Structure formats: C-alpha cells, structure tokens
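ok, trying the design again with the full structure, not the truncated one.
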C-alpha cells in the first residue's frame, strides 16, 4: 500500500481527479470537502442508531455521498483516468420514496421543532445543517462550473430526508420533539 502522505500538497495545492492541481481553498475543493464533512457527521449519527432500517439507510447515504464527492472532485469526466460514478435521477427519486415512507409513520407536525429529542435525533439534526451548508457550497460552485442538476437536487432532497430521519429516530428512541416557543 502506498504511503498516506505524498508531500505534493505541502504548497497548499491538491489535484483534482482528471484535472489540474488547484489551491486547497478552491471553490470545488470546498464543495466536495463539505460533502466529506457531511459524510463524517453521518458516520457519527449512524453509531447512535440501533441496527435496523435507519442505520442501513445511513449506510447507503454515506456511499452515495462518496459518489457525489467523487463527481464534484472531477471537473472533466472525459479527462479522468477511469469512469467516475455519478448521482443520477434514480438516486433523487429514492430519497423522495424514503421521505414518504418515513413520514407516513410520523405524527403530523403542528409547529416548528428544535434540534434534539434524543442523541440520535440531535446527531441527525446536526447532519441536516451540515448538509444545508454543503448544499450552499455546491450551489455556489454551480454558478461558475458545470454541476449536474441531479447533484443539486440530491443534496437538497437529502437535507429533507435527514430531517425526517431525525424525527423517526426520536420517535423510535422514545425521545420527544421539542417544540419551538417563540421568544416574547
């Protein structure tokens, strides 16, 4: 196995897949970096969940986020040394099906809720906010570079799914949803 360090990034640059070396603060690097951070946060949330459908779902989401990160790290798929997997409409459609499936088992929302309710729920709400930040960065990248519309839709839908998973995790853990009470 190759060494984990290469020293090539010591000057503050990194290589894009099939592309040039860019500064580590490049917008593209920030976008896939935020996706990587989300993936790590999902790993933490996953460990708060018992075995079952929610944990399995997070496993699938983590794999898809790796795909999205690779897609974002490849500015020109034609120049890549091998085919890069991509997020496609079927991935977005599956997120919507999961949202519908989980929502069907939840009580209707009567007011806004605060993040928390259980350890798993709190971790998942944190993932949701990290996802929203990553989405903002991917949208910003899309202003100056080609970003597949399916990638944008995926990250948008994923934050919705994470909200629903947090609610489901709270309910299943015997936790509660904490209603927002506006300050007076």
């Amino acid at each position: 196995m190759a060494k984990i360090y290469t020293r090539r990034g010591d000057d503050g640059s990194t290589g894009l897949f099939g592309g040039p070396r860019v500064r580590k603060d490049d917008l593209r690097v920030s976008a896939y970096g935020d996706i990587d951070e989300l993936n790590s946060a999902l790993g933490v949330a996953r460990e708060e969940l018992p075995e079952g459908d929610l944990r399995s779902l997070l496993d699938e989401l983590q794999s898809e986020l790796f795909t999205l990160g690779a897609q974002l790290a490849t500015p020109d798929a034609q120049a890549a040394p091998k085919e890069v997997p991509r997020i496609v409409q079927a991935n977005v459609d599956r997120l919507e099906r999961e949202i519908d499936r989980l929502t069907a088992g939840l009580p209707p929302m009567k007011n806004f809720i605060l993040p928390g309710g259980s350890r798993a729920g709190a971790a998942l709400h944190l993932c949701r906010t990290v996802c929203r930040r990553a989405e903002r960065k991917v949208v910003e990248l899309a202003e100056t570079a080609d970003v597949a519309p399916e990638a944008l839709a995926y990250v948008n839908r994923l934050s919705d799914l994470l909200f629903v998973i947090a609610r489901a995790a709270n309910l299943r853990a015997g936790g509660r949803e904490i209603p927002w009470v506006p300050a007076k």
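Keeping the full-length input from now on. The chain has a mean pLDDT of 93.
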